[in-house]
């Protein structure tokens, strides 16, 4: 065995069939509490668009936009084209991007709970600053603190859910994050609908109530147990096994615990996970960590949710009517997530992503045609066409809600080996927030420049991402999280880059254990 690799190699064989346990009330309870972290992300998405359409808010912080809004002779598509106003929405996501990278070593070295608590405290601070804002600087500092909270929360919560959930229900339980996100969006939309009538200070209440989900997230983080994977990774094997037995409802967790220990031994040997994630053997996971969140944003969903009131006002809806329409889309998104929860572990990830993509393309094209033919400068949509546009946008949101909405978070959080899981999730969150920032900053200008073509722009991207899923994404349904590596080794494309054996020496592309191979 001279020349053989004596270091840890991770999970070396499949044991999924030996996994024991059942779905316990304890694991469902912990996942529900942890998923509250998604509500802060959703609340901000929902609240921002409504607040930026309120006259009291615009008069105080963006008087130029308020005056532009009153000019009926200007292009309907360009009423709100203001980079400073866009920065109010998008600044949060740039801060979140940086925070998600900072969160990675904290999540790995101090546990998933530590990052959840940090996220809750930061978001609570930001909500307080925003509610009390007296000038634009104070407002933007508050947004940055909200971004830090979202960066930590989005980095830790999906990981927590994936590691706590049993393999056969991981998709459904992980989607609690998306369910909480959509509930946050819907709640924010309804709050905006009410506070819009409290002029001129209603916007302060909308922004300040973000403290509620932040407080829930902080308290929840203090009460939650740490995941078995994180405990073992940090050397606390006895406590890790105890938690695993509790969440699985059985003492017979030997197979799953051994997978965690094997993965942990390799994780401990990796001192630089961000450097390790660039290695050839991690290529498929890295590609998914980049492209899944990128494509999720390029569906155009965040633009619709951020700016739904602004978008509907641009189409000729009145102020209250536009908030009502955006509240409707929020309710539809929340409801559609249940479709995904009910079907993801039966039909699989690929089926939902592909069918959702097809429906979204059709809906984007229909909206573009209606606006192109029936809507222009100094025009308003007729009542019948306005109802049709809202209906089609709701159908678009339904498709997103069962496909790219939840699965854009679920898939990246479940595919990484333990040694790069925290770093991989940080990359996923950073890419998501980077493109959220870019689209958030550019959307109002794109709407002004492309007009109805903005919907065709997003339809083109959805077509590309649907093809990408069909060609490159293997089905992860029912695969234990610590055995995901075997999936890539069997995929028609990725098996070219992933070594067939954990002993593969990546420096020369050959098995380092050549003597052992040759002795058979």
UniProtKB/TrEMBL annotation:
InterPro entries in the record: MFS_STP/MST-like_plant, MFS_sugar_transport-like, MFS_trans_sf, STP/PLT_plant, Sugar/inositol_transpt, Sugar_transporter_CS
Keyword Transmembrane: yes
Ranges that cross the membrane: 23-43, 84-102, 139-161, 173-191, 203-224, 286-309, 321-344, 351-373, 385-405, 426-446, 452-473
Membrane topology classification: Multi-pass membrane protein
GO molecular function: symporter activity
Keywords tagged on the record: Membrane, Sugar transport, Symport, Transmembrane, Transmembrane helix, Transport
Entry GO terms, CC: membrane
SUPFAM superfamilies xref list: MFS general substrate transporter
Coiled-coil parts of chain: none
Cellular compartments annotated: Membrane
Keyword Transport on entry: yes
Major localization class: membrane
Xref: Pfam families: Sugar_tr
Similarity comment: family membership: Belongs to the major facilitator superfamily. Sugar transporter (TC 2.A.1.1) family.
NCBIfam families given in the database record: SP (TIGR00879)
Protein name: Major facilitator superfamily (MFS) profile domain-containing protein
Source species: Eucalyptus globulus
